[in-house]
Amino acid sequence: MVGQSPPDTPLTGAGFGNPNNTEAPCMAVFGGSLYVGTTGLTYWSQVMRYNSGGWTRVDVDAMSKPIVSGVTALADYSGNLYVGTDQTWGGVACEVWASADGTTWTRVDGGALGANNKAATSMAAYGSRLWVGTHNQADGCQVWSTAAAGGPPYTDWTLENAGGFGDKDNIQASCMAVYFSGLNVGTSNIVDGCEIWSSGLAWYLAEGATTGGFETWVLVQNPGTTPVHVNFTLNTDYGEMKPAGLQNFSIPAGSRVSFNIGKEVTTFNVSTNVEATDGNVICERAMYFTPAGASQRVLGHDSIGFVP
């Protein structure tokens, strides 16, 4: 980029001065410092911090015990720095550790991720939760999440996907990134080739009315290059409704579709949830009012949706 130097200046000597540090697979910025996790060929792992004071090792002995072959994931979430370990060589489950200051660490997984998940290979803060992707040769990679509740160790760890996303050859969730308000996961698959999976996207739209002269429309835009399928849920004073014609509805690439909610329900109270199952969309709710006896609308209002 113009005005920026290429990354051609080494910040440290080889292996941070130790040849056992053979790889630096993850980095994160936390509290104004750069943190780097390392892996090695002889059960070696470290967390290194870089700032104006130079490099400092900040992991604890328990995190670097002999069965830990690497620190393979780092993420800043809700005021803490999180570390995921690789314990493949030790043959035991991976671990997740947290620190509020980058120096003092507490284990927070409590073994909840399961014995077959040997490495925590990716992490991301998404929505109100921390997400952790794993390496799992037995069941296929898994994605877990937590809101850091009930601990430590946290008691709300939730499995968010089928093993390997339905294909056991997807053995590793190698990377995660939040894009267009959705969480995307890249897999390692040496049989069929890597895959990219998206969490989908849920939009919540403000309440509207479809009677007494009011109209409520939901507008769904797909800015992408491939079709995206959406499911509608209407929350009304009659209860939850899932109109059959608004399930798995395809929004063509580069287009917007307008849905008249009055065709589905007649009520003064209706709010809408739109879930995109295989891509990203933008949703808004428009309302109009036509007084009794009038021939045209006299008022209009629009509200963008909310993504948690």
Characterise this structure:
- The protein is mainly beta.
- It has 2 domains: 14-198, Kelch-type beta propeller (Neuraminidase, 6 Propeller), CATH 2.120.10.80; 201-304, TM1070-like (Hypothetical Protein Tm1070, Chain: A), CATH 2.60.290.
- It is built from no helices and 24 strands.
- The strands form 6 sheets. Strands 16, 18, 19, 20 and 22 form a 5-stranded antiparallel sheet that branches. Strands 1-2-3-4 form a 4-stranded antiparallel sheet, with no helix packed on it.
Q: What is the typical, i.e. mean, pLDDT?
A: 91
- Largest sheet geometry: 5 strands, antiparallel
Please name the fourth-level CATH homologous superfamily of the largest domain. Answer: Kelch-type beta propeller
CATH C-level class of the largest domain is Mainly Beta
Number of domains: 2
Shape: elongated
Structural class: mainly beta
The CATH architecture designation of the largest domain is 6 Propeller
Residues in β-strands, percent: over 45%
Uncertain runs: none
- In N-to-C order, the SSE pattern is EEEEEEEEEEEEEEEEEEEEEEEE
**Number of DSSP E strands:** 24
Alpha-carbon distance between the two ends: 33 Å
How many helices? 0
Q: Give helix % range.
A: under 10%
- What CATH calls the topology of the largest domain is Neuraminidase
Radius of gyration: 24 Å
